[in-house]
Amino acid sequence: MADNETDGGEIEIDDHSGVETTGHEWDGIKELNNPLPRWWLIVFYICVIWAVGYWVMMPAWPGITGYTKGLRNHSERQNVAAQITQLEEARAEATQQLVAAPSMEAIESDPALNQFALAAGASLFGDNCATCHGAGGQGFKGYPNLNDDAWIWGGALEDINKTITVGRRSTHPETTNTMMLAYGRQGILSRKQINDLTEYVLSLSGQTHDAAAAIRGAQEFAAQCTACHGADGTGNHALGAPNLSDAIWLYGGDRATIHETLWDGRGGVMPSWEARLSEAEIVALSVYVHSLGGGE
Ligand code: HEC
Ligand code: HEC
Q1: Which terminal residue of the chain has fewer beta carbons within 10 Å of its beta carbon, N or C?
Q2: Using CA positions, which residue lies closest to atom 36 of ligand 2?
Q3: Sign of CA dihedral 93, 95, 96, 100
Q4: CA 159/CA 14 separation, integer angstroms
């Protein structure tokens, strides 16, 4: 232990570490004098000064009923609200135009309005329709593909608009309710008749089939099915009866699935959106869906 004599008193140097002590001692344990590095202290004091400035300028301290607003009166929440209002104002005019347009065809032929409708429609589709129809409208078994040019209820703008507004087999009073009956389960046709019809339906889309059974099936078809599916099986949009002669199927075109359709019947439900979406939103969606695969 080396002792140094100074005017203030004794400075003691710790033997083990060679660092001077502060002179504080507890039960023989002495406190070493290891000051913080200068750079650290400078940064620390800068932070303190900056914090005081921040309290003055920005919202900082909670109070009983509110908080100190700061000189800048900054509020992220107000900023977002202002941005939303701004956006709504910017959109209000275009939204108005969607409803005021003489027809949906007129919207499509106005490039700016069409672009607005497509953008709004795409976002509404993602929020409301993609769960059933797929993110790109590609569909699933029982949920029609909206990208192709084959339509059950019609692919013209007016048809699409009606499908979305009142739904199909929905709870809306103006919806269309035609069903594909359960010909087997309800005993309308015998098992043999259904087997024959299955072969005939296979033949309509050019698939391999039992020719003799298909000929018998053709007679049944003329008697039972043409009222909805048409004499040549090409379907009827007004009744929602799909085209059976193309290679596009809602439920499936293999022998087993066709048989199942004829035995158990089908009746897919497209909900009505009239109560959930505004008129302008339904128009935007119609234009968007039409752009995916309109026609017919
Ligand atoms: C709960 C599932 C479900 C949701 C959600 C849904 N749909 Fe549908 N949609 C269906 C079903 C099922 C059909 C087929 C009905 C049938 O079998 O005829 C259908 C049919 C359609 C058709 C007719 C297709 C054709 O070939 O004629 C259009 C258009 C359509 N939906 C658009 C939409 C749009 C736009 C939305 C979002 C606002 C939407 N759907 C939301 C289930 C749904
Ligand atoms: C009252 C009208 C009506 C009659 C009659 C009718 N269908 Fe249908 N059929 C429909 C409707 C509507 C659908 C679509 C059901 C749906 O969208 O869920 C359909 C669907 C089908 C499908 C499924 C198509 C697919 O894409 O998966 C087949 C197959 C079919 N019908 C065959 C027949 C045959 C065969 C007969 C005669 C025994 C017949 N239908 C009689 C209305 C009818």
Answers
A1: N
A2: 225
A3: positive
A4: 93
Contact 21, 32 (CB under 8 A): yes
* Ligand 1 center to 2 CA (angstroms): 92
Confirm or reject: Cβ of 153 under 6 Å from ligand 2. Answer: no
What pLDDT is attached to residue 88?
86
Ligand 2: distance of its center to the CA of 145 in Å? Answer: 17
Label residue 36 left, alpha or beta by phi (over 0 means left) and psi (-120 to 50 means alpha): beta
Ligand nearest to the backbone CA of 230: 2
For residue range 92-108, what is the model confidence (pLDDT) as tens digits? 888 999 999 999 999 99
State residue 91's pLDDT score. Answer: 85
What's the pLDDT tens digit per position in 53-91? 999 999 989 999 888 889 988 889 999 999 999 988 888
Q: Which of 224, 158, 236, 227 lies closest to 190 in space, CA to CA?
A: 224
Count CB atoms within 10 A of the CB of residue 259: 19
Q: Each residue of 6-36: pLDDT tens digit? A: 445 678 888 888 899 988 889 988 899 998 9
